[in-house]
Design a protein that fits this description.
8 strands; Arc Repressor Mutant, subunit A; globular; single chain; 10 helices
Length: 245
């Protein structure tokens, strides 16, 4: 690493390393990785902790991202100019598919609806922006979990309450971990009536910068109108929308 970085560079380097790591990182390791004096790293870490961007890992040494960092990312996602552009892309996608389309954020053991365009059909499954739904039984939730580092996956699965919502909900941790392997290989997620009886969904990742994705574009439909196989025909359109967003 070059030694002529500015103080701001050092803060951002530390934030990025902690955010995208698959485990907690401590002062000594960050100092060695980034070629920054330990005293400087410690000072930056304590400042970021005080501001709520990082916190000390409850189960071991080192630091992990905290709520302040999530709020910062949510604020960026809600910026007016970005919100208008992405909503227009989601609207175009919803018109192409003929079903509701969503932008969702992976947050802990839940997914949060960041943006949404409804279908024009009378029969709708309505979820307002800001709604939270479980990760283990939704297309976007399983997809984003599958694309996290392996140690994060097992930690999330072990923490989750794998509540049964339908007869197809995956409630066994080992079965879920095997499903995540397949999802990561194909790079899309599917919900085949796992969250709601009679509702199917497909999701693709939205990749921004380095690190595992935490956003996804998803669409869902009642099986009375569209089957999973039909939704999968729109994967190229969904991937194109995700790239443009």
């Amino acid at each position: 690493m070059t030694k002529n970085r500015t103080p701001t560079d050092r803060v951002l380097d530390i934030l990025e390393h902690v955010t995208f790591s698959d485990r907690s990182l401590g002062t000594s390791e960050l100092a060695a990785r980034l070629d920054i004096p330990k005293a400087t790293v410690y000072r930056i870490l304590t400042t970021l902790e005080a501001r709520g961007y990082l916190s000390r890992h409850l189960l071991g040494p080192g630091f992990v991202p905290d709520a302040g960092l999530q709020q910062l990312s949510r604020g960026a996602l809600d910026a007016p100019h970005y919100r208008a552009e992405r909503h227009a892309i989601l609207t175009e996608l919803a018109e192409t598919i003929g079903e509701a389309c969503n932008l969702v954020l992976f947050e802990g053991t839940e997914q949060v609806y960041i943006d949404r365009v409804e279908t024009k059909w009378p029969l709708q499954f309505r979820l307002e922006v800001g709604s939270r739904v479980p990760v283990h039984c939704t297309a976007a939730g399983k997809l984003l979990l599958a694309l996290q580092p392996a140690t994060h996956q097992s930690g999330f699965v072990n923490r989750m309450q794998l509540v049964r919502y339908t007869r197809k909900t995956i409630c066994d941790p080992d079965t879920l971990m095997r499903a995540l392997e397949d999802i990561a290989q194909f790079d899309y997620g599917v919900d085949d009536e796992e969250f709601l009886d009679g509702m199917v969904a497909v999701a693709v990742p939205l990749r921004i910068g380095a690190g595992p994705p935490r956003l996804a574009v998803a669409t869902h439909a009642p099986v009375s109108r569209m089957r999973i196989d039909t939704l999968l025909h729109y994967l190229p359109d969904m991937r194109d929308a995700a790239d443009r967003i």
